[in-house]
Amino acid sequence: MSAMDAVTDEQIQALAATGRPYSLVQLSWAPRRHQQGADAIER
Fold first, then answer.
1. What is the DSSP string of 1-43?
2. What is the pLDDT of residues 1-43, one digit of tens each?
3. Up-side HSE of residue 21: CA atoms within 13 Å toward CB?
């Protein structure tokens, strides 16, 4: 399929039928990560 080919509803539906649900979690350090006692809850 080239960049100029159109994608049909049928193609999207076929792909959606084979897909699996998933979740994505993005973790980041909070501003107070280095406060006293914070390392006690880190695993």
1. --TTPPPPHHHHHHHHHH------------TTTTSTTGGGS--
2. 566 789 999 999 999 999 888 899 998 888 887 888 777 766 5
3. 0
